[in-house]
Amino acid sequence: MKSLLSPSLLALAAALAWPGAHAAEVGPRAMQLHQRILTLDTHLDTPANFARPGWSLLDDHRAEGEYSQVDYPRMVEGGLDGGFWVIYTGQGDRSAAANLKARDQALGRLVEIREMLARHPQQFELALTPEDARRIVDAGRKVVFISMENASPLAADPSLLSFFHAQGVRMLGITHIGNNEFGDSSNPRQGEGAEWHGLSPAGRALVAEANRLGILLDQSHSSDAVFDQLIELSAVPFVLSHSSSDAIHEHPRNIDDARLRKLAAHGGVIQVNALGAYLVETPANPERGAALDALWDRSEKASSPAQLRELAAHRREIDRRFPVPQATFEDYMQHLLHILQVAGPKHVGIGADWDGGGGVEGLSEISQIPRITERLLQAGYDEQQIADIWGGNVLRILGQAQAHAARLAAQAPAPAAAASDH
Question: Are 102 and 394 in contact (CB under 8 A)?
Fold first, then answer.
């Protein structure tokens, strides 16, 4: 449990502590429930900010707009207990040099996450098991699982997966934008087609190794063929850490209803994404695209919160000059409620892609997430189902992956005794 306050005091505390949620007219019942249950998001790209000089996760960064959507004050305000914090690397050209660069970038991001944990032990703690998550929340801290988005850092040496696992990685995404050595992407780059028709031989070996280690496999960003092969090959359920509904908005990154049903039958979970381009049709606007690309390049080089605030102002100016339809909270809920209807509440969760492009009008940063709980209650989902959606489901399948790994370890033959020198 997250609080020992009485329901009446809890409602008052929620209204005072969550001004953003209160302004969005989230009712007392939803606030109380949201405060009680364990709430996890499976795709927090926030570690991209950790190395910026002067940027602290303990500060409130809402003035930085979409360049900072998650920080400790807003996690408290929005009632987010934590989630999976991402080691992200973009897909390089797959040359030996690019693969080594990806490896080094991933190792650097891992260090940055571990350094954050070392700096803020009273607020954050590394989680390695589902039981850890519950214990950490009960102790009043925020949960830090570590995930890897894009297996490209392993291309030069797949055996590094064991090292990343030892350092805390508990979820592995196979691809990002563009195919890699392990499989085909849902968004191959221009000129690429289906290179492997799903997983490559190295990708199949990676699936087996992740199963052996107890790492939860993540299909988001990979092709439909990869999905189909994971159903066949993975000995345990897998997750889509941040994906949406193809039936609501057809997009290569989204998943169709038939596969949603297969995912549920296999025991897996889809965590619903809040990136607007995956939720609604966004008309092409070359001038806007060029301006955003230039701003993205600048954001990659930004070295302080002040520079991020300046970039946020430039982003608002681009939106004014080149307006396009924006996805809304109701668009997000249309995807979430449809996926819940198709897959069932035991197979759905939340992975909004915060600090990685996620966020819509009315759900633009982490303090506003109690609105999701309110709408789920309005849609008729009960408290246990909502608790499953907000964290129980992903913890269940992580536990299944780890239990399978433990069984494999128990069945492994003991190493042969070394020959005696005597």
Answer: no
